[in-house]
Specification:
The structure holds 2 protein chains of 2 kinds. Chain A is mostly beta strands. Chain A contains 1 helix and 19 strands. Chain A is 4% helix and 57% strand. Chain A is globular, with a radius of gyration of 19 Å. In chain A, 38% of the residues are buried. Chain B is 8% helix and 52% strand. Chain B has a single domain, classed as Mitochondrial biogenesis AIM24 (Double-stranded beta-helix, 4-Layer Sandwich). The termini of chain B are far apart. Chain B has 2 helices and 19 strands. The chains are: A mainly beta, B mainly beta. Strand 4 of chain A pairs antiparallel with strand 15 of chain B.
Chain lengths: 216, 218
């Protein structure tokens, strides 16, 4: 696919599809499409995501992943918008390269890209007398092919060496690679008012490239 | 009269009104004005009582317009991120603007509305209103997000999300339809509403559906 970003405030993505070329996207983010573009359903099962895996994700409370994607088939142009401000990036994945993108930020991807929803991090928070599980869901995408995604706010990229690590908020991590280790840490405040109050953070270790975004 | 667009993220239209010059707009859009600018109210009664009730109580359109009369400055905004554009309408030139997107019009611009019927599916889209504006005069309008322009040839058509429609020439046809999501009964059951837009004429889309501005964030 040939994908270009249009606009700066709330950017849209213009995708040019050749005859027979197919891309997948969430079905509610299409802005416009040419009359000759065909639209169909692609279920998670057709993408190789087992029902048990999907039900497990849903049981954890993941509401971002639908049970299907909308499949757009060329020739023609399609534009997508997530109705949000933020940077749109187009990433070409070589064969075998995998990225883990925070759930809810994927715009579209080539049919050749392998898709798998996953849990990137898990932690617990105390609510009264109960411990409640929290999850960071991600879309695992493996090339070959092109993916398009959007951040909230601006994107900051880091290429971490094996000994390096960055700490980010639980909403700040946008993308990691499988070689990165993502661990949940706890940031505590000290003093009379802060004593005993801790917040979860993500400690991301190298090696591998990561992206964080500036919005929440 | 001079109209300038100020700001980039949440832009406003700044109007310099000469003595006696007037613009009209929906209530609640004024950001600031000189104390010398006078405010009046103009009722919009097109179509009689039945249409007024339908427009205002069902459609949520205003019954009154605010009229600002110079001399002085007045600025107007939709208080949302996006682009503001101005358009000089020649005498007899007509454009249609999506509801709640018009910022202002000079008092020589004729204003009316029309209804684009929905698909009529239960629990689905029931249609929407558009403002019809005929020159001579100048209008300013707000596009949520970025504005994308298309010049459609005669018979050329595109399908769009219904929240994306911002502005079109009067001779550009628009109709709502159900877009099946794949084949079979399931595809029809999961169909969604879209708009079929057919030229000839100029069309502008906005990248944010104003009815879905809060969006969802991961």
């Amino acid at each position: 696919m040939k994908a270009d970003t249009i606009g700066t405030i709330t950017p849209a993505v213009l995708v040019e599809l050749r005859p027979g070329e197919k891309i997948l996207a969430e079905h509610e983010i299409m802005l416009h499409m040419d009359g000759q573009v065909k639209i169909a359903r692609k279920t998670m099962k057709q993408l190789g995501v087992s029902r048990a895996h999907l039900m497990g994700m849903k049981a954890r409370g993941d509401t971002e992943d639908a049970y299907f994607f909308a499949e757009f088939e060329g020739p023609g142009n399609v534009t997508f918008s997530r109705d949000k401000g933020g940077e749109v990036r187009v990433l070409n994945l070589p064969a075998g390269q995998t990225v883990r993108l925070r759930s809810g930020h994927l715009i579209c991807f080539d049919e050749s890209v392998r898709y798998n929803p996953m849990v990137l991090a898990q932690w617990y928070i105390q609510k009264g007398n109960e411990r409640e599980a929290q999850y960071l869901f991600a879309d695992e995408l493996t090339g070959p092919g092109t993916i398009v995604f959007q951040s909230v706010g601006n994107i900051l990229s880091f290429n971490l060496a094996a000994t390096e690590a960055v700490r980010t908020s639980t909403v700040g991590l946008l993308m990691a690679s499988p070689s990165n280790v993502v661990q949940v840490g706890w940031l505590g405040a000290s003093g009379v008012f802060g004593g005993g109050m801790v917040s979860p953070v993500l400690d991301v270790r190298g090696p591998g490239p990561i992206m964080v975004h500036s919005g929440v | 009269m001079e109209i300038k667009v100020q700001g980039e993220l949440v832009p406003a239209a700044l109007v310099q009104l000469g003595a006696g010059e007037e613009i009209f707009c929906e209530a609640g859009l004024m950001v600031y004005s000189d104390p010398s600018v006078r405010l009046a109210i103009r009722p919009f009664t097109q179509g009689g009582l039945g249409q007024v009730i339908r427009r205002t109580m069902v459609g949520g359109l205003p019954f009154f317009f605010h009229v600002y009369q110079g001399p002085g400055y007045a600025a107007f905004s939709r208080f949302a991120p996006g682009e503001v554009r101005t358009l000089e309408l020649a005498a007899g030139q007509t454009v249609d603007i999506a509801e709640h997107s018009l910022l202002l019009g000079t008092n020589t611009v004729q204003y009316s509305t029309f209804y684009v019927a929905g698909t009529g599916r239960i629990g689905r889209m029931v249609g929407f209103w558009m403002d019809r504006l005929t020159g001579p005069g100048t209008i300013a309008y707000h596009g949520h997000g970025n504005i994308l322009g298309f010049d459609l040839k005669s018979g050329e058509a595109i399908d769009i999300d219904h929240g994306a429609l911002l502005r079109k020439d009067a001779n550009v046809n628009v109709r709502a339809f159900n877009q099946p999501l794949g084949g079979g009964l399931t595809g029809h059951a999961m169909s969604f509403e879209a708009l079929h837009v057919e030229g000839p004429g100029h069309l502008e889309l906005q990248t944010v559906d104003p009815t879905n501005r809060a969006g969802t964030q991961g």
